[in-house]
Structures are given as C-alpha cells and as structure tokens.
Design goal:
- Helices cover 22% and strands 32% of the residues.
- About 3% of the residues have low confidence.
- The protein has a six-stranded mixed sheet, with helices on both faces. A three-stranded antiparallel sheet has the order 1-9-8, with helices on one face.
- By secondary structure, it is of the alpha/beta class.
- Helix 2 links the parallel strand 2 and strand 3.
- The chain is built from three helices and nine strands; from the N terminus they run βαβαβββαββββ.
- The chain starts with 5 loop residues before the first strand and ends in a 7-residue tail after the last strand.
- The structure holds inosinic acid (IMP) and magnesium ion.
- Magnesium ion binds next to loops.
- The site of inosinic acid has 16 residues, from strand 5, helix 3 and strand 8.
C-alpha cells in the first residue's frame, strides 16, 4: 500500500520476531493451569492470532469488545463493554491481549471488571506501549515495543477504521486532532 502519510515504525519482520519471543516467554511463565487469552476487539485481533500460535501450550481464546468515550480530550474516559466474554474466567489465568496501552483508561477499567470474576491471575500483553501518555497506573506485563508519543496505525491499529490490515506498524503523519 503506497500512502505518503505513512512512515514504517516497526516492520512486519520485527513484529513477528518479537511475537515469537513473547510466545516462548509467556509459555514458560504459565507451565500449567487454564490460560485464557482475552482479545480486546478490534485492534488486538491481529496480535492475538499471531501470539496464540507462538504459544507452546494450550490456550483458550475469547473476545471482549470495549468502547471508550471522551478519550484524548478529557481524562475521565467513559468505558463501555460492547461484547462480553463467552467463557467463564473463574479460577483461570487470564492474559488480556491489547494492541496498545495509551492513557491506560481502557485497561484500568477492564482489570477492575475482570478481577470481580475471580480469576486465578490477570496479566496484560500489549504489542505497543506509549508510557508518556499514561493517565491511569497500568503496567503491561508483556510488551512488544515501547514507542514514543506518535499516532500509529497498522497491524490491527486504525485511524477511523482504516489501515488495520497493514503488515507494519506505521506512524500516520498529520495525526487526528483528538489525539
Ligand atoms: P487507552 O484507554 O487510552 O489506553 O486506549 C487504548 C486504545 O486506544 C487502544 O486499544 C487503541 O484502540 C486506541 N489507541 C491508542 N493509541 C493509538 C494509536 O496510536 N493508534 C491507534 N489507536 C490508538
Ligand atoms: Mg483497542
């Protein structure tokens, strides 16, 4: 795809190599028990499918839809669940799989919500982390890449639903005003 607004930040090769490492590391960290990978739609679904296949053990895969309002301009950031999990997480190890941790508002809300359902543990795997933008104290246990405060698209990440199917993570120049 040729688009002069896009600049490759992380190539497809680097993404795939890093995911293989993460899959091995996470598999070692969970030698037993039921591991539920919870994909946050839609952005994380590309990361989820590659990470699940890089795992060296059985995993359950489930999906959660979340929408965040008032993000970027207000710090309150109202979060709503648009699709809930299909499988109970009680007593299970939960690995939340997210595309990017930005303000932390979404994951902060989700951690509290899922903790109430009595899982054995909850951790976060995020492909990207923008630590400079944090408004809520969220620590991702597994991070693919830390990136600077730039608006990125590709490999699941969108701008107005566009660019999700790029293989690379790219910086979108002339970023949206709300960010
Ligand atoms: P948070 O609640 O601010 O941490 O929001 C995280 C969500 O915002 C991610 O799941 C993305 O959907 C979206 N997001 C944050 N930064 C970017 C970006 O640079 N590009 C595309 N989407 C982003
Ligand atoms: Mg998202």
């Amino acid at each position: 795809m040729v688009d002069e607004k896009l600049r490759v930040l992380i190539s497809a090769e680097k993404i795939q190599a890093r995911i293989r490492e993460l899959g091995e590391q996470i598999s070692r960290d969970y030698p037993d028990g039921q591991l539920h990978m919870v994909c946050i739609l839609k952005g994380a679904c590309f990361f989820l499918t590659d990470l699940a296949r890089a795992m060296k053990r059985d995993v359950f895969v489930d999906f959660m839809g979340i929408s965040t309002y008032g993000k970027g301009k207000t710090s309150s950031g109202e979060v709503k669940v648009t699709k809930d999990l299909d499988i109970s997480i009680e007593g299970a190890d939960v690995l939340i799989v997210e595309d990017i941790v930005d303000s932390g508002v979404t994951l902060n809300y989700l951690m509290h919500l899922l903790e109430q359902r009595k899982p054995r543990s909850i951790r976060i795997a995020a492909l990207l982390d923008k630590p400079e933008r944090r408004l809520r104290p969220i620590h991702a246990n597994y991070v693919g890449f830390q990136i600077p405060d730039e608006f990125v698209v590709g490999y699941g990440l969108d701008y107005a639903e566009m660019y999700r199917n790029l293989d690379d993570v790219c910086v979108l120049d002339a970023p949206p005003a709300a960010k």
